[in-house]
Every structure is written in C-alpha cells, then in structure tokens.
Amino acid sequence: MLSPREKPSSWSTSSSSTSPRRPGDYIPLPSRPSTSLEMTNTTTTSSPASTIFLGIDVGTGSARAGLFDEKGKLLGSASSPIQIWKEGDFIEQSSTDIWHAICAAVKSACSLANVDGKDVSSVGFAATCSLVAVDADGSPVTVSLSGDSRRNIIVWMDHRAVKQAERINSSNSPVLQYCGGALSPEMQPPKLLWVKENLQESWSMAFRWMDLSDWLSYRATGDDTRSLCTTVCKWTYLGHAHMQQITNTDSRDMEACGWDDDFWEEIGLGDLVDGHHAKIGRSVAFPGHSLGSGLTATAAKELGLKVGTPVGTSLIDGHAGGVGVMESVPLSDSKATEDDKEAICHRMVLVCGTSTCHMAVSQAKVFIPGVWGPFWSAMVPEYWLTEGGQSATGALLDHIINNHVASPHLANRAASQGVSVFDLLNTMLESMMHDLKAPFLAALTEDLHVLPDFHGNRSPIADPKAKGMVSGLTLDTSEKQLALQYLATVQGLAYGTRHIVEHCNSHGHKINTLLACGGLAKNPLYVQEHADITGCPIILPKENESVLLGAAILGSVAAKNYSSLRDAMKALNAAGQVFHPTIDPKVKKFHDAKFQIFRELYEQQLSHRSIMRKAMA
C-alpha cells in the first residue's frame, strides 16, 4: 500500500538527498547502533503512565515504534530505516532486515520515552500490504530473480504482475465484484501467480505466504492467524462469511471459511487450497483480537519487552491510519452523534504519504466499479469498507521536485534556511501570487495541468497502465517554474481525490467530511488545496502519528482495555485543526474548469493509445 509516515520531523516524504536512485540500487542497512532514530513528545517523568500501548508500523522506507498513554497521547517514538531493492517494476525487501529494524526502533522508543519495556501493556502491528515468503522453518524464501535469499518480500508497489492481473481479471470470478470488478497488480493473487510461473523452486519451498503485517504478528507470537483486514483487502477472502461471528469472543479460532476455492483453481493456483489453505491462512480474526499467548520468549527478548505481552491481530498501515483518525471529530460533533451509527459513514479518511489510501465505511455493502471493496469488517468491525487510492502521491511530488534541474539549488537554499523544500516552495508560491497579482494562489497554474497517474490509476479508473501527463511546459527551468509544477501536481492529486469522492457518492456513499493523516497532511498547502477542490472540510487529528496510534489501538483491544475496536477509537482519537473549503465562487469556478481538463487528459490518453495500437497492428 503505502508509506505515509517516513519523516516524523517533517511532512516531506522524501530523502534529504536530491539525487534519484538508479535502477538496481538498494538502500544499505546501516549498523544498528548508528540507526537513524527520532523521538517526539517524550515524557521526562520517572513514573510512567499507568497504561502504555505500543504501536509498530512498517512503511516503505522505515520501521517505526510509538508509545501512547490511555488518552492517545504520543509519549515517544523512534524509527529505523529498512532496505529496499528497486529494479524497474521489481521492488523487494527483507523480512529479516525489517524485524531487526523493528527491534531497534522499539528499544530506542522505550529509552527515549523513559519507559521500561516491562511496563508496556500491549503491542499492535501495522505494515504495508507487501507479500512475504517463508519456508517451514520460518526462514526467508527468495522472490527475486537475483536468487538473493534475503529478498523474500514483494513490496506493495511492485508492478511485476500486471499481465497476471489481466489474466485473472478475464476470469470474471464472483470474488472480483468485491475488488471493484478487477484485481490490481498490487494485490497478492497476481504476485503469487507470477512467482509460480517464474520462480518454481521458490514456489516449491514456500511453506507460508503472508501479508507483511500478518507475518509480523506471527513472528511475535507464533500464531499463524491472519487478519480479516489483510486477507479480505488483498487476497480476495470473503470476510462476510463471518457475519454471524461478530460476537465471538475468541475469534482467533475462526476457521477460514471465506476462501473461494473455485477462484484459486481457475487462476492456476489450486495448490494453495491444499491443507485447508495452510499456506495462505487456515484461521482469521477481527483486527485487534488477541493472538496466541502474547509475545513469545524469543520475540520479547529481541524487542526488550516482557513475555506474554498481549498482541492484537494486525492491520495494513493505511487501515491502521483509518483506525487512528476516523473518530477524530470535534467534541461538538461527536456528542451530537455519539449514538448514531451512521455518522461515521459520512467520513472518508485520507492516509497520505508515498501513496494515499481513501477509506470510507458503510452499514450496507456498496459496490463501486473501479474502487476496492466492499470489504466486510476489514477496518472497523461490522462495517463495510470502501477503499480507493492513488499509487503515487508523496512519491510523485518527490519525483517532480528531484528530477527538476533547479532542485539541487532549491534544496541547498532550504537547508541554509533550516526549512524543508516544501516550506520553501509554499513560501515562494505566496510571493509569486502577490508579485503576479493573481486573484488567488491556485490561479498560478491557469496554464499548467497535471494528470498524476505516473504509477497507474488505482481508483476510480483502475487502470495500472495509465500514465502521467503534463500540459503547459515551457523552456523555463527556474525555481519559480518548479514551484508551479509542484503546485499543479498537488492540484492534480486533489482532483484525483475529488474524482474518487464523487464516484463513491454517485454509487451510494454520502461522504461530506474528510480526515487526513500521514506525512502529506502536515503540508498546509496540500491540505487546503484538497479542501478547496473537493468542497469538503478536512479534519486533522490532534495526534499526528495516526498510523502508529491505530496500531497501538489494536494492542489495547487485545489487552482488554476496551471492549471493542470502535470503543478504543472513540477513547483514543481526538480532533485537531480543521481546514474549511473556500467560499469564494471564483476559486470554485477555477477548480471546476481544471477538473474538467483533468478528466479530459485521461480521455485523450485513451485516444492516443487507440491510435498507436492501430498503427502497430
């Protein structure tokens, strides 16, 4: 999925380096003693809070740990970088490396927050929806053409399985209606099919195929129970097979009855049905249910925690962000609707960083072409989840900025002023608006338009072959021109969000409020443009680290501190700043016009494809 939280000290999702990595490069793992660690809001008192919840989040570029008190306040956090190998559409990681990074981050977070590991009450995991392969002993099984045994994870954003996804989608299996009508190459069945077809030795060796967050909880507890979040959202598991088991207090023992065996047989992966689906999940649980007997002795020692500490069934990182923010509404609103089960259904959460997840829930299932879901109980138990998304948001802004000729000089200027590149760009745009006497800031891009599908379109078009487009380029290579390209890209991403919201509402949702978290939510220009373009108020959470909080909430439920996930969300979520959409009709008219151009750019791309396809026939 995504990595929205890589830089706690800034809302930039980019590396400090301005030099893009070359294909085949990887991020080397530094020795753990010199690991990059960051602490926020650290307690300095010698007596710890009575209840401390630990949330662990593995993003695309780092593993992070955060400690929270019973009010949802962050006591301290730390992060540790993780390796990543990139070669074109092939993107891989190492589960061994990730676990070492987690252990380093947890120990450092405890140290920095002045918390003894034995005082941690519970643990919850969240991670990208990457695919992990291990053998019968739990050792890594390579998923790489290089044969490197360390590289046993196909990262969420890997697009090696586009052709496999196309073949699967041609099957017209009934399970596809719960994925917006088509599987994305970012989901697990296409990736599994690719491995079977291209790495037969690895296919034979693999004893377990797991979503990364499920592997983390398995590594911590020894319990192979899978989460309804991961299996339903990324594996075509039909969670509503368990609708009668919502009151089951021991849901970790639920037999996995939601697999569609005909689907797996039809797409050529019938061997995964063997052994009661042992390789992909025999049992499932609702997010937050207690796993095994808590931390094993080995995991507890490695993490610096106590044996038996309760561990909750995991979530995908974006969904953890949803859990960490979805009840973050102003007190006046929450009191007025505290007993209204429908109130939560008018909200959409944007977990925005490297990519962005757009998540809304409903009491009744809503089928929306091109949008993933409906997924029953995949995020909030008893609610159907609709999941839209954009595959490259923070990653796209990094790409636009880092590949511009003015980028190195801009980065040097930002460093000399002690601000982020994005702070500097935002300030430049304000100055340009005044200097050019523009009626409002957004109007600076009157002649510059961006279709942001540089890594395909996840929602609502569901076209992994979609390409990015820019209309309005000149020979200007100045920093000011870079600022305009940055603004136009932010707007393009916001038009994408508007497209998703309007598409969802036209098919039965009633979304009128957005809640945003993740690295990009710390950028006021990014948030305000989204408010103006969607016409929705955007609420930011009081606690910035919503994904870590969502992960911590899972553990709090497992430890029985709260009776349900929803109760924990209400207790630990809190609202912060609210960005209201503009009331200026001129701004609305401007964005309506640019949104029309945004939609036309994709239609033009389809026309161009058709013309070239005929020419190449």
From TrEMBL:
GO molecular function, one term: D-ribulokinase activity
InterPro entries named in the record: ATPase_NBD (IPR043129), FGGY_C (IPR018485), FGGY_N (IPR018484), FGGY_RbtK-like (IPR006003)
One annotated Gene Ontology cellular component of this protein: cytoplasm
UniProt biased composition (Low complexity): 9-21, 34-46
Residues annotated as signal peptide: none
Positions of the Carbohydrate kinase FGGY C-terminal domain: 349-559
Residue segments, region Disordered: 1-46
Keyword set, alphabetical order: Kinase, Transferase
Domain Carbohydrate kinase FGGY N-terminal stretches: 53-324
Ranges that cross the membrane: none
Superkingdom classification of source: Eukaryota
GO biological process: one example: pentose metabolic process
A Pfam family reported for this protein in Swiss-Prot or TrEMBL: FGGY_N
Metal-binding among keywords: no
Family note: Belongs to the FGGY kinase family.
Name of the featured protein: FGGY carbohydrate kinase domain-containing protein
Phylogenetic placement of the source organism: Eukaryota, Viridiplantae, Streptophyta, Embryophyta, Tracheophyta
